[in-house]
Amino acid sequence: MAAIASAINKFTNFSSWFDELIFKTRIVDNRFPVKGFIVYLENGMFLLEMIRRRLEELLVETGHKTMMFPLVTTDELFAKEAEHIKGFSSEVFVIEKAGNKTLEKKLIIRPTSETIIYPMFKLWIRSHADLPFKIHQTVNVYRYETKATRPLYRAREFPWNEAHTAHATAAEAEEQVREAITIYSKVLKELGISYLLLKRPDFDKFAGAKYSIAFDAWNPDGKVNQVATIHNLGRNFSKVFEIEFEQKDGSRALVYQLCYGFGFSRVLAAVIAQHGDDRGCVFPPSIAPVQVVIVPIPFKGYEEPIMSYCKKIHEKLARIYRCVMDDREDVTPGEKFYHWEMLGVPVRIEVGPKEVSSDKVTLFRRDTLERTEADLNDVETRIEELMTKIFTSLKERSARIMEQMTVDAYSVDEVKKALSERKIAKIEWCGKEECALKLKEHAGGEVRGSRFDIAEVPQRNCIVCGEKAQEVVYVAKAY
RNA sequence: GGGGCCGUAGUCUAGCAUGGUUAUGACACCUGGCUUGGGCCCAGGAGGUCCUGGGUUCGAAUCCCAGCGGCCCCA
Question: For B33, which residue's CA is nearest its C1'?
């Protein structure tokens, strides 16, 4: 089978497959001369923008106000919450000079915006009538990653959306966790992405949170890709940032808070990695930069009727879809096929003398590589049907792979074996960090957490120490 | 933090051990022609601080030193 370049398979050689693909399809150019910083090209930006729009739409619908906060905080503010600074201090960029002047108060570039947003919450939140208070912003954040960086997965600058909410009671904060899950799940499911919704073990929660839950998407190399997280902060931050409100009875109380973040570039990586195949990207129709491509197959002497037939179709379809007619004359149809397939265009229309003489078109669907014939009259209906089918089959295929990738393991060795086969291991665990560390050392994977969406009750003993298991957890390598 | 590998055109790469003419090839790019139902073919063209600096030498992509950059493995 023809491949994106030199027979690179996404499951056996994921890195090359991915790097080459995102470069050739003009999603990103990672040749920027500063490590960990990449250039997003037109197709990458288009895809990010589609994902961003949908997420923001849902956030606004549910009452999150759109705002934009500054890029910087001070080290004093940043250091306020003890756990928080411990978790992030090793990876923040610090501005120490401005012009020729050495700054007395160093500025910290946000790795996340709690310490930038919460001083403002203190000013804005006065009364129970102000609650719940919900805001969100789409910005780039900066983390000095020391591990190997990889475009879209792990960069030192990355685009995300972060939401921050404040509530009167712990119960309302819990309710908000559900709402955040609903919003994020919706966006991910509309992209056909499969993931595990996990409550992170205590030792791996967000720095400063009461607990954290995360969306871990599967990846062809077996590592999981954390695309979004939701943190219940309790009153850890409101205590130190003094975010108080006046209750109905006149007494004062600290707010309960949540923050949740959605990594656009990692979501895009998941779309590419989960749906793509050895011919390249396969995009869900809703976000595909090009949804329909028309490829004329001219024969000597018949060029004119074929081209005008194509133009007619293009005119009609361009009103409904992002539709391109590839009328390049110096490129053969075969080469055009490969080109648009790599770009993940869901539906292709082929028009040659055969179609023109019978008032038909040939439709090609990117996901299954199947061709069908359609009458010119109902081409729109047929494309609409195809798009729905394509989305459903992408989604189902991704879910199936996720299922096959997850295997039960009853010993450390079995975990090791599962991970070496690029799988995610499901184990029973006592809950002690010590056992998780041992597991990481001997099997190479991290305890990612227990299912948050469904209850999985442990029946046996911890596979590491043999004591009674407290949780059913998933173990995987991670980005 | 420890160890290893590698920097040659837009991309990938040969050459390097054993220094020697004009730095190899493929893809991509430009011009013209031919073709068109899966990457066709023919002819021509352009593109290089061989990562940077220093050293050895009659002569360095090649050897030595330093720096910068990238990748991988282990902790």
Answer: A330
pLDDT in tens, A224-264: 999 999 999 999 999 999 999 999 999 999 999 999 999 99
Give the containing element (helix H, strand E) for A410: none
Tokens of A296: 């004329």
Strand partners, A424: A406
Bridge partner list, A229: A214, A261
A286: left (phi over 0), alpha (psi -120 to 50) or beta: alpha
Tokens 């179609």 identify what position?
A355
Q: For A178-222, write each residue's pLDDT tens digit.
A: 999 999 999 999 999 999 999 999 999 999 999 999 999 999 999
Helix axes A42-61, A170-190, angle to 10 degrees: 140
Q: What percent of chain A has pLDDT over 70?
A: 98
- CA A300, A305, A309, A310 dihedral sign is positive
The CA–CA distances, whole Å, from A65 to A70, A163, A184 equal 16, 9, 17
Q: Which nucleotide is nearest to A2 (CA to C1')?
A: B39
Q: How far apart are CA A143 and CA A155, in angstroms?
A: 8
CA of A13, C1' of B75: distance in angstroms: 26
Question: Strand pairing of A292-296 and A347-351?
Answer: parallel
DSSP states of A39-105:
EE-HHHHHHHHHHHHHHHHHHHHTTPEE----SEEEHHHHTSSHHHHHHHGGG--EEEEETTEEEEE
**Separation of first and last alpha carbons in chain A:** 30
Neighbours of A203 (CB within 10 A): 12
Å from A166 (CA) to B68 (C1')? 48
Footprint of strand B on the protein (CB under 7 A): A 2-4, 15, 31, 34-35, 148-149, 279, 297-300, 303, 329-330, 332-335, 337-339, 341-342, 350-355, 362, 364, 369, 441, 444
| Strand B nucleotides where any atom sits below 7 Å of a protein CB | 10-11, 33-40, 69-75
- What is the identity of the amino acid at A70? P
- A1 pLDDT higher than 50: no
Beta strands in A123-201 (DSSP E): 133-142, 157-167, 195-199
A38 and A155 Cβ atoms separated by less than 8 Å? yes
Q: What is the pLDDT of residue A16?
A: 83
**Spatial distance between the Cα atoms of A457 and A440, rounded to a whole number of angstroms:** 23
What is the pLDDT averaged over residues A417-435?
94
Q: Looking at residue A152, what is its pLDDT?
A: 93
